[in-house]
Amino acid sequence: MEEIRENDGKLIGSKAFSLHTITGEELKVPPFICITTEAYERYLESTSIKGRIILELSRKDIKDMRWEEMWDTSLRIRNMFLNTPIPEELDRGIREQLIKYFSDTAVVVRSSAPGEDSEKTSFAGLHESYVNVRGIDSIMEHIRLVWASLWSDAALLYREELGLDINHSSMAVLVQELVAGEVSGIVFSKGPENNNQMVIEAVHGLNKGLVDGDVEPDRWLVDREKKSIIRHSGPSVRGKIVRLKETGTALEKLPENLSDTIPLKEKDVLEIHYIALELEKKIRAGSGY
To answer: What does this protein do (predicted)?
Structure first.
């Protein structure tokens, strides 16, 4: 990712470009590489999938489809990816890069579509990410699964609602070393209900439980300017945790010694507040869009 330039945001997608922007001496970011939108387009062109997608979408305008028709269209398109191997030359090029960094490393394979996780379009939860993927063959398989998720029924509907050109949708894929933290979470540097507040959510174990909605988080509202905690609210029950298996993850019962333990201390919350504001500045300054 060291070769990325300022105008490469559309080549690697919003998520990967943001990670590239914040990577440096001040912040530890797990190693990652990005399979670019160019690789995705080469795959479509060299396998004839692109023409087949156009044919599928020409049968009926998305906005005129009933939900079940959209689901059927989405399924047919996604099956094209699942049943079509990556051509040998492209496959070899991607594998060469993966072997350099992740031959013996557990990774997360994540979507990084242009416009994803941006200020105007979030696509939260609409594209797939896979946690604890091991081995080059498995990573290659999951890259196709992420490409396919661009065409989920929910993603198609979201693009239609935003007035985006579905025919020109594209997908980069982020492959990043997995760090299994004891506590993980999400930060909204500007709260969805009040831009003067920051929202911090945290759970014990992996973040996947929080993102998937399987684990209810502890939540803090923090005043962006005053650097003070406005309110902390805990879950109704701290009863579940997502942990690593040999491959993939498992939703398990939270150990009793953690059920009464708040995931973050006050000093942790305020440190996250400071880091989030610094990252916000860096990402705005380095935006490639």
So the answer is: Catalyzes the phosphorylation of pyruvate to phosphoenolpyruvate.
CA atoms within 13 A on the CB side of 117: 23
Q: Collapse the DSSP code of 178 into the 3-class scheme (helix H, G, I; strand E, B; otherwise coil) and give the result.
A: coil
pLDDT in tens, 211-258: 888 999 999 999 999 999 999 999 999 999 999 998 899 999 999 999
Q: Are 176 and 164 in contact (CB under 8 A)?
A: no
Q: How far apart are CA 22 and CA 287, in angstroms?
A: 11
CB 241 within 8 A of CB 258: yes
Quick one: CA dihedral 67, 110, 246, 253, positive or negative?
A: negative
Give the pLDDT band (50/70/90) at residue 163.
low
| Model confidence pLDDT, tens digit, residues 84-122 | 999 999 999 999 999 999 988 999 999 998 865 545 544
- Show the tokens assigned to 287: 């935006």
Domains and CATH numbers, the chain: 9-177 (3.30.1490.20), 183-285 (3.30.470.20)
**Between residues 264 and 4, which one has the greater pLDDT?**
264
CA 77 – CA 22 distance, rounded (Å): 35
Round to whole Å and give the CA distance between 190 and 9.
22
Spatial separation of the C-alpha atoms in residues 147 and 128, rounded to whole Å: 9
User: What proportions of the chain, in percent to the nearest 5, are helix, strand and coil?
Assistant: 45, 20, 40
